[in-house]
Amino acid sequence: MSAYRHRWHVSGGLTVAIAGGEVVCRPSGALWLESAAALIVADLHLEKGSAYARRGQLLPPFDTADSLTRLGAEVEAVAPRTLILLGDSFHDGAGEGRLCAADALRIGALARGRTLIWVLGNHDAMGPRALPGERLAGVVMAGLSLVHEPGFGAGSGEVAGHLHPCARVSGPGGSVRRRCFVTDGERLILPAFGAYAGGLNIRDPAFARHLARRPLAAVLGAARVHAVGWRSLRGD
Amino acid sequence: MDAQVPALLPAAFADWFAARGWAARGHQLAMVEKARDGRDALLIAPTGGGKTLAGFLPSLIELSQRPPLNAPAGVHTLYISPLKALAVDIERNLAAPIAEMGLKIKAESRTGDTGVARRQRQRIKPPDILLTTPEQLALFCAWEGARRYFEDLRCVILDEIHAIWPSKRGDLLCLALARLAKFAPGHRRVGLSATVDDPDLIRAWMARGEGAQVDLVTGAGGAPPIVDVLLSEGQVPWAGHTARHAMPEVHDAIRGARTALIFVNTRFQAEFAFQELWRLNEDALPIALHHGSLSAEQRRRVEAAMARGELRAVVCTSTLDLGVDWGDVDLVIQLASPKGAARMVQRIGRANHRLEEPSRALFVPANRFEMLECQAAREAIAENALDAERPRRGALDVLAQHVMGCACSESFDLVALHDEVRTAGPYRDLAWEDFEAVVDFVATGGYALKVYDRFARIVKGRDGLWRARNAETVLRHRLNVGAIVSPAMLAVRIAAGRRMTPGRKIGEVEEGYLELLEPGDTFIFAGRTWRLMGVTGVDVLVTPAPGEEAKMPSWGGSKFALSTFLARRVRQMMSNEHHWEVLPGDVREWLEIQRDRSAIPSTDEMLLETFPQGHRHFLVCYPFEGRLAHTTLCMLLTRRLARLGVGPLGFVANDYALAVWALKPLDGLDMADLFAQDMLGDDLEAWLAESAMMKGAFKNCALIAGLIERRFPGNRKTARQVTFSTDLVYDVLRRHQPDHLLLRCAREDAAAGLIDVARLGELLARIKGRIRHMSLPHLSPFSVSVILEIGRQTSPGDAREMILAGAAEELIAEAIA
Question: Where does B227-313 have alpha helices with state H?
Answer without folding.
Answer: 247-255, 267-279, 296-307
